[in-house]
Amino acid sequence: GAGVSQSPSNKVTEKGKDVELRCDPISGHTALYWYRQSLGQGLEFLIYFQGNSAPDKSGLPSDRFSAERTGGSVSTLTIQRTQQEDSAVYLCASSFTGTDTEAFFGQGTRLTVV
Amino acid sequence: QQQVKQSPQSLIVQKGGISIINCAYENTAFDYFPWYQQFPGKGPALLIAIRPDVSEKKEGRFTISFNKSAKQFSLHIMDSQPGDSATYFCAARLGGNQFYFGTGTSLTVIP
Fold it and tell me: Which of A13, A67, B90, B108 is in Cβ range 3.0-4.6 Å of B23 for a Cys bridge?
């Protein structure tokens, strides 16, 4: 695709259920990021993948959150036993490695936990 | 620890005025400093960027001022327009790899 694609665009789930959010990065981009953005708030870093290196998971808020990136391409962010405070927009971004390269963001997945 | 500190959190400017958003960093290994603009319901998109060997970059009404010694950089929006109302994020890239984003500034331009 031409840009970063995220699915679903909207997700409503019941408290306690597990959810999976998908990110298709731009083809060839080696770096992939997940961020969380609560209503009217800034970007909260969650996790960063770079090629085959071990991901930087330092931003994951709890062990209910996990992410994987298969084949260096598609990534899935999984939230187990969702809580109401998990409600937010989850943004994925990807980039090439190297100087003067930008990160391209997807449109985000709006997660609502009821 | 917030690698890039951004201020103010929100900003209200009259149409035609100058909007100024500031960011500061500590890590001298950062080598690329982009600004992103985000409209409601959209993902952030690159607005303008600068490398640390340049003190200023201007694109239309948008200017980045970069002070390497102070480890600060700022976005100036001249002749601010209501259409500029958005959230702005500064960022810094570490050695060609990971991006670190500021917490964002919500800009409202009043007609």
Answer: B90
Per-residue pLDDT of chain A (114 residues; tens, 9 = 90+): 579 999 999 999 999 999 999 999 999 898 999 999 987 677 888 999 988 888 999 999 999 999 999 887 999 999 999 999 999 999 999 998 766 678 899 999 999 999
The CA distances from residue B70 to A2, A53, A54, B63, in Å, are 39, 33, 33, 18
For residue B101, give the CATH number of its domain.
2.60.40.10
Residue in B5, B97, B100, B107 to test binding to A, most A beta-carbons within 10 Å: B97
Contact at CB, A106 and B49, closer than 8 angstroms: no
Please state, in angstroms and rounded to a whole number, the distance separating the CA atoms of residues B4 and B9: 13
